[in-house]
Amino acid sequence: MSSESGELLGIDPAELLFAFELKKQISCSLHLTNKTDEYVAFKVKTTSPKKYCVRPNNGIVEPRSTSDVLVTMQAQKEAPPDMQCKDKFLVQSAIVKQDLAQKDITGDMFTKESGNVVDEVKLKVVYAPPQPTSLNERSDEGLGSLSYQEPLVLISNLKEEKNSVIQQNKKLQEELDLLRRAIGSRHGGFSLGFVLLIAILGILLGLLIKR
Asked: Full-prediction pTM beyond 0.85?
């Protein structure tokens, strides 16, 4: 006996959606809901069994209860043309006896010849681009990296400034030495202009040292 598609088990979602990424395993969950007051066995098949791992691929859902199935697509080396996937899944279900164990589930139970009330639901596979990182997550990551790098940048700037001040001090000291030698070589003693120049250079040197 057969029933209308989806009469025994409600299946959510109606298609398997994978956020496709190369060289990465991707999973999608199926939520099975027993709509009846009977025990319902299920079996999940796919047209590409080597490409997908289904856990569990069969089981029994108690009356008015639910069961989850995890479908994992193996890492793919190439993307299909136009991101179109031709893979399909088939969820078979059948009303069974209460005392049936999961290990005793066979493929024959889901055929019309078995005399069981059976049902089949076909599911398509859809590939979608991976979800981009949200703006908030990017902002948080950016702020986190800035707060971590700020002290390092500040220390680097201070070192550069210190080295610059040292070089300027050396240059001023060399100029003062040259000026003193030039003044000492004069016979007429110190002129007022040279004295003022020495005083100004001395003040500048003092200010740079205080920094």
From this structure: no
